[in-house]
């Protein structure tokens, strides 16, 4: 995920990495091994897993050990104005700069942004099985989440606990206590409950920014991705590590194995096209252009920029 962000982005990135203490040395070691031309494109800080309210062990058992951490980012990163939270199974197929620009689309009340959990509400999980309130007609997926932390810290949130508003930090544990026996997807369910009561606070971005197997495994249903291409790939359901969705696995392995100093077209784009020919027996594999469109666009932009810099702006014809 970190590698994909660096490969395709233009501006310098600040990574805030939350992980178990035992993994910290491995992160530092791996990131230091990257070539200088890439390490100068980012700064990183590593934080332990911490929960500021309630029982830490309880939060750790909520869905996955680190998943609930995102709920506490406004409290822990007090000096950070805004951030993009992503799960570790996310890959960027275009510059992070582009999703960052969506922050400018927020109106005066919006303080976070997510994509819908499903494009077709009647066959979505929340509309069929949820035993708690959820946002909109299909719920939202929290694997890719833009957050204006300054706004979150200063807002008072409507809730089902008391008649008046509550601050973000004061709301989390009582909300969890109230709904803990009704939630399946942990912190994502809590976010759905929060934005059910505060819909004016959420900006919903299209599915191309959080593209999951559900968007193609039963037939293509993400219209924005068909039109624009996949911008951010979210390989949930463990699809990078099994053979159920070979298109997702092919993209993951192409980015993982790409030698930093190689040419992106020769060492990533062309091999991916060949690899996708082996995935046409799946419904996701029948729409390769949806997965490749943004990568191709990003590489063309990088190439043109490189050529313009090399030749010099006055010598272009």
From TrEMBL:
Membrane-topology annotation of the record: Single-pass type II membrane protein
SUPFAM superfamilies listed in its UniProt record: Nucleotide-diphospho-sugar transferases
Annotated keywords: Glycoprotein, Glycosyltransferase, Membrane, Signal-anchor, Transferase, Transmembrane, Transmembrane helix
InterPro entries: Glyco_trans_8, Glycosyltransferase_8, Nucleotide-diphossugar_trans
EC annotation from Swiss-Prot or TrEMBL: 2.4.2.42
Membrane keyword on record: yes
Location relative to the cell: Membrane
GO biological process: protein O-linked glycosylation via N-acetyl-galactosamine
GO MF term set: UDP-D-xylose:beta-D-glucoside alpha-1,3-D-xylosyltransferase activity
UniProt xrefs under Pfam families: Glyco_transf_8
UniProt superkingdom: Eukaryota
Catalytic activity: 3-O-(beta-D-glucosyl)-L-seryl-[EGF-like domain protein] + UDP-alpha-D-xylose = 3-O-[alpha-D-xylosyl-(1->3)-beta-D-glucosyl]-L-seryl-[EGF-like domain protein] + UDP + H(+)
GO CC annotations, alphabetized: membrane
Family statement: Belongs to the glycosyltransferase 8 family.
Function: Glycosyltransferase which elongates the O-linked glucose attached to EGF-like repeats in the extracellular domain of Notch proteins by catalyzing the addition of xylose.
Protein name: UDP-D-xylose:beta-D-glucoside alpha-1,3-D-xylosyltransferase
């Amino acid at each position: 995920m970190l590698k994909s962000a660096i490969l395709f982005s233009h501006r310098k990135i600040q990574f805030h990495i939350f992980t178990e203490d035992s993994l910290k040395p491995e992160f530092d070691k791996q990131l230091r091994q990257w070539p200088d031309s890439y390490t100068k494109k980012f700064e990183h800080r590593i934080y332990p897993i911490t929960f500021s309210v309630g029982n830490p062990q309880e939060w750790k058992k909520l869905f996955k050990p680190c998943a609930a951490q995102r709920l506490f980012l406004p409290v822990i990163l007090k000096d950070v104005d805004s951030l993009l939270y992503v799960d570790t199974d996310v890959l960027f197929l275009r510059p992070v700069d582009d999703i960052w620009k969506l922050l400018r689309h927020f109106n005066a009340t919006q303080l976070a942004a997510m994509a819908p959990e499903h494009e077709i509400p009647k066959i979505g999980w929340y509309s069929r099985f949820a035993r708690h309130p959820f946002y909109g007609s299909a719920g939202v997926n929290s694997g890719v989440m833009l957050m204006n932390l300054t706004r979150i810290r200063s807002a008072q949130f409507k809730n089902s606990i008391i008649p008046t508003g509550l601050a973000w930090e004061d709301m989390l544990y009582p909300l969890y206590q109230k709904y803990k026996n009704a939630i399946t997807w942990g912190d994502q369910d809590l976010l759905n409950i929060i934005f059910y009561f505060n819909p004016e606070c959420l900006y919903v971005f299209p599915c191309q920014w959080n593209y999951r197997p559900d968007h193609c495994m039963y037939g293509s249903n993400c219209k924005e991705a068909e039109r624009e291409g996949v911008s951010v790939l979210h390989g949930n359901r463990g699809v990078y590590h099994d053979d159920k969705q070979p298109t997702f696995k092919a993209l993951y392995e192409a980015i993982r194995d790409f030698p930093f100093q190689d040419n992106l077209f020769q060492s990533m784009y062309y091999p991916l096209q060949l690899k996708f020919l082996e995935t046409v027996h799946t419904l996701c594999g029948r729409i390769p252009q949806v997965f490749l469109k943004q990568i191709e666009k990003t590489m063309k932009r990088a190439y043109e920029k490189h050529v313009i810099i090399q030749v010099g702006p006055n010598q272009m014809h």
